[in-house]
Amino acid sequence: MTTVENIPEQLQERIDMAALGARAAEHEALTPAAREELIAHIKRMLREQNAVLVAHYYVDEKLQDLADQTGGFVSDSLEMARFGYEHDAGTVVVAGVRFMGETAKILSPDKRVLLVEKNAECSLDMGCPADEFSAFCDRNPDRTVVVYANTSAAVKARADWVVTSSIALKVAEHLTARGEKILWAPDRFLGAYVQRMTGADMVMWQGSCVVHEEFKADALRDMKRRYPQAAVLVHPESPPSVIDLADRVGSTSQIIKAAREMDQETFIVATEDGIFHKMREAAPGKTFVLAPTAGAGGSCKSCGHCPWMKMNDLSRLAKVLQTGANEVLIDEDIRRRAEVSLKRMVEFARKHISPTMKLTGNA
Ligand code: 13P
Ligand code: SF4
Q1: N or C, where is the chain less crowded by C-beta within 10 Å?
Q2: Does residue 228 lie in a domain region?
Q3: Concatenated DSSP letters of 24-58
Q4: What SS3 string covers 186-246?
Q5: pLDDT value at position 19?
Q6: What is this structure's pTM?
Q7: Do 167 and 78 touch, CB atoms closer than 8 A?
Q8: Under-70 pLDDT residues of the chain
Q9: What local confidence, expressed as pLDDT, does residue 358 receive?
Q10: Ligand lying nearest the CA atom of residue 302
Q11: Which CATH number is 324's domain given?
């Protein structure tokens, strides 16, 4: 396995700054009446601008509700990409992080794509600079390049395939069956999981998610003792020792589905805590507990909170619709090349996951 030193030194500083922004967003100082007025104003602007709001499960629940109420969509990153692509709105507003906005623009160049917060990044994307990644690919010319959706447009442009966590196993199986060897980036934990489950021949970039890497296996074992009837649901960006304790491993949509379908009444959940909003809707009456990030070796920088997802809020959304700020623009040559690897994923999903998707409601 190839190891690449790739986390920029300034990463921690930027995470701290994002956390400050996120805290500000959480404390959006609005009275209930002012909030209602703001929501009504946003709904009017969405209608007038033929705009649709697409939100990830990790963003503030008020934004998730607004997406649902206005014919938009709340989902995982694969279905967000498909929704923006298949919907006929002229403007797609993305409540999530930057790679999600870029993905929408790559697939829909003729649409206006706006990000609620342009500084909403992702540690996986930040830890995989395009020039270093390209050099890594050059050193492994015999491998099929598969990148996680949590990357920049320039990294996607260098890839043969883009995958999300909900489709990664199927794509790796497909490539392995064709005898192809894989170069994988950037998440080393998701990569290790895919390798373990499929037996694929993979070399890996060594990136990680600052939220999921903090879940702790020892503390999770203790928690399981306290909730002996609970099922453990884990996102595959988590460390292998945490994945080993899971009853189900899956993308955000797959975790929500598991909570709805499994018989257990209590779930310990190792992913970002914004997901609890939709889990409670999907499985009312069941109990959800965040998996531990503290305990032995715990640093708890994020505590199940993605600092960038939490930068998205109602005021920023209103401002973006008012001013047209935060439009996603991508160099056309990069976009065209990234479109090839992304469309490969979308077409594969159409064949192997579901041929069509609903254009309203939840994934
Ligand atoms: P999903 O594709 O499972 O929604 O994951 C996106 C993400 O950023 C997880 O941290
Ligand atoms: Fe990136 Fe992790 Fe945040 Fe997901 S939770 S957007 S992988 S930093």
Answers
A1: N
A2: yes
A3: HHHT----HHHHHHHHHHHHHHHHHTTEEEEEETT
A4: CEHHHHHHHHHHHCCCEEECCECCCCHHHCCHHHHHHHHHHCCCCEEEECCCCCHHHHCCC
A5: 60
A6: 0.90
A7: yes
A8: 1-28, 295-302, 355-363
A9: 47
A10: 2
A11: 3.40.50.10800
